[in-house]
Amino acid sequence: PPGNLPDCPNGSQWVMEVFNECTQDSRDIASVVLGLVSILCFVAASFPQFYQAWKTGIMDQALSVYFLLGWLGGDILNLIGSFLASQLPLQVYTAIYYVFADLVMLTLYCYYKAKNESRRFNIRINAAFVFLSLGTVLTISFLGRDAAVMQDPVTFKGRSLLSIRLDEFGLKPFTRMEIIGFTIGSISSVLYLCSRIPQIYTNYKRQSTVGVSYSLFALVMLGNLLYGLSV
């Protein structure tokens, strides 16, 4: 009878329970492991920059605020998209962490800017920071309340923004909520890509990378490489 057989009879049970993904051979397991290591790289990427900021005290000069705002905007949209596209809990939790880490980094930026410039703040920067912070809090509270309603089972294939739904009759089309989530995720990717440009310009203008953590970008590059291999 339907339901008596497991979804993945020859696969790893814990991977199926945690990731809702069927891993039946070494290639599948390698994909999962690389994906997990990729997440760890992204999670750890901010810490070297925190240390560099404390060590040099010139974070406001070393990093472009538009680089930080681009990252924060991309992560906020990624978080919203993870709810709308019914991503797995691990992906939602990591998206929340990314937003939190961005807010901490932006807070450090504002702290050192205030310290080094004696209360002279850029009004546009602070307005954008406050707007994004409030938007994040409101979005998390709103989506967290409605997440249970929007979640239904998916077959996980890499990122859930690209997942497919299955029923006993075969494929089902994407819902409107999933399409919106996919669109938001795409805009998030554009923000990630464009955020590098202000930082490259800042480095060129200063003719220096003092105060910028090499490990931050090395871990991000490694995370992207491992994620690509995982896919």
Could you characterize the architecture of this molecule?
This protein has 231 residues and is an all-alpha fold. The chain has one domain (13-134, 174-230). It has helices spanning 13-19, 26-44, 46-56, 59-62, 65-84, 89-117, 123-150, 176-206, 214-230; strands at 165-167, 170-172. Strands 1-2 form a two-stranded antiparallel ribbon. The relative contact order is 0.18. This is Lysosomal amino acid transporter 1. It is found in: Membrane. Keywords: Membrane, Transmembrane, Transmembrane helix.
Write the layout of secondary structure elements.
Blueprint: H1 13-19, H2 26-44, H3 46-56, H4 59-62, H5 65-84, H6 89-117, H7 123-150, E1 165-167, E2 170-172, H8 176-206, H9 214-230
Antiparallel strand pairs: 1-2
Helix pairs in contact: 2-9, 3-6, 5-6, 5-7, 5-8, 6-7
Sum up the structure in keywords.
231 residues; mainly alpha; two-stranded antiparallel ribbon; 9 helices; 72% helix; globular; disordered N terminus; LAAT-1; PQ-loop_rpt; membrane; transmembrane
